Amino acid sequence: MLKIKEDLLESMLDKAIHSIQSSNIKLVSYTKQLDDINPLSFFEAAKSIRGNRSFWKSSVDDFYMVGVGAAFEIETEQPDILYIENKWQTILEDAMIHNPYQVPGTGIVALGGMAFDPYKKSTDLWKNYNASQFTIPEFTLTKHNGNFYFTSIVRVNKNDHAKQLLHQLKGKEKELLSPLEDWPEKVSVVSKEEIKPEQWKQTVQKATEEIKKCNAEKIVLAREIRLQLSNQAEVSNVLEQLIDTQPTSYIFAFEHGEDCFIGATPERLVKLEGRELLSTCLAGTAPRGMTEEEDQKYKFSLLQDQKNREEHDFVVQMIKHAMEEYCENIDIPNEPVILALTNLQHLYTPVRATLKEGYSILNIIDNLHPTPALGGTPRKESLEFIRHYEQLDRGWYGAPIGWLDSNENGEFAVAIRSGLIQGNRATLFAGCGIVEDSNPEAEYEETNIKFLPMLSVLGGL
Ligand SMILES: C=C(O[C@H]1C=CC=C(C(=O)O)[C@@H]1O)C(=O)O
Ligand SMILES: [Mg+2]
Fold first, then answer.
1. Which residues are annotated as part of the binding site for Mg(2+)?
2. Tens digit of pLDDT for each residue in 172-230?
3. Taking 70 as the threshold, does the pLDDT of residue 81 lie above it?
């Protein structure tokens, strides 16, 4: 840091300390540009504060965010995203921000997520994850359009000393930006346990019966597998492999205490840049072929398959309807196209719109989640079925995860193709949309393909 910049940060800290009122949260943020730095190395360099790191890579853009430490946590056990919104706005009103770049994901940012269904009783598996939790990191590395930005955020207290805070910041920054000496090893799967697959197939059967009785139109059911690993899984290594093997997915990790929720999801829930909004309808699945010819065959039959088209169309109709409330200039193509991923292909309909004034990204999430790609149609009936009959604790699986910044930019994905790593154990999740014509055996096979991205990077193939 140049002397002149240090002086500016010191005087910001000093001013913040002297202006603080008894109960308010005063954050000071300072953003500067860095030379080339590998986001994964930055994540790994922060391993001394393991338990408090977040990682995000966008699916299509060369955009990364790595959050380290916690200047402040916004969390709630209540099923109330708007509590998060209010707290976030209050924090921003009191914050002092130095950010000459105004690039998405810089300045004051928050990274986090929430439970799929806060009304379902949670188990010990997810004890380290709140109903919703957003971290404002102490340090954020952002890669945007080939440029690197480094933001430091300090929560100041009345009795702090600016010089001392600055000294601590410089020490931590040096540690985070120093070259790495070694890179963690891969793990492998020692044993794999599928949780009650036959019972799961019976639940699928039960769902189709409920649909035939017109009690719902679509219900998404998930199942889990538990893995015993050769060693404690190193998150940096797992992330590195996910980036390599799933280049068109969002790659994410949210560490909470000893645990890490991690995955590679293709499903964007919402991206907001200024008022420009993107969303995605993703549902309907087929495998990839072993040859070009076989791949094309799967592709064409997926595009024409009645059952998959129905699964997909429920998502399109719901998102279209939700967008009409908050957006204008809504653009949704009439026909889906194929989104081909490493292990499977999906029916995909992109959505573009302009967000009306007065609404935020958290309003959109509140409205969209869960889409029929993860819940079902109608929402109320399908969620009741899931709550009652699904045997697992989804936790944050299937829920919105992502980030937002102080300039109304943000992006959230749906946390699928994911797992919870707990030392040398991991729990993986995969689900599928059940409609009237679903066949339990075929749906079981579909979930098997959806486990592959996580299973392969944990050394389970
Ligand atoms: C619920 C999952 O996928 C959803 C997203 C895309 C396709 C889906 C399907 O075809 O069933 C699912 O709705 C999952 O991967 O765990
Ligand atoms: Mg499906």
1. 311, 446
2. 999 999 888 889 999 999 999 999 999 999 999 999 999 999 999 999 999 999 999 99
3. yes
DSSP string, 119-171: TSPP-GGGTT--SEEEEE-SEEEEEETTEEEEEEEEEE-TT--HHHHHHHHHH
Q: How far apart are CA 334 and CA 190, in angstroms?
A: 47
Cα(150) to ligand 1 centroid in Å equals 35
Task: Identify the CA nearest to 235 among candidates 43, 401, 394, 59.
Answer: 43
Protein residue with least CA distance to atom 6, ligand 1: 283
Q: Which of 59, 208, 220 to mutate to test the pocket of ligand 1 (most atoms within 8 A of CB)?
A: 220
> How far, in Å, CA of 171 to CA of 152, rounded?
12
The residues assigned a catalytic role are 218, 267
The dihedral formed by the CA atoms of 222, 228, 230 and 232, expressed in degrees to the nearest 10: 70
Give the domains, in start order, of the chain with CATH numbers: 3-177 (no CATH), 189-457 (3.60.120.10)
- Where residue 261 falls among pLDDT bands split at 50, 70, 90? very high
Query: What are the counts of helices (DSSP H) followed by strands (DSSP E) for the chain?
Result: 11, 23
ipTM of predicted complex: 0.99
Residue with tokens 């059940």: 434
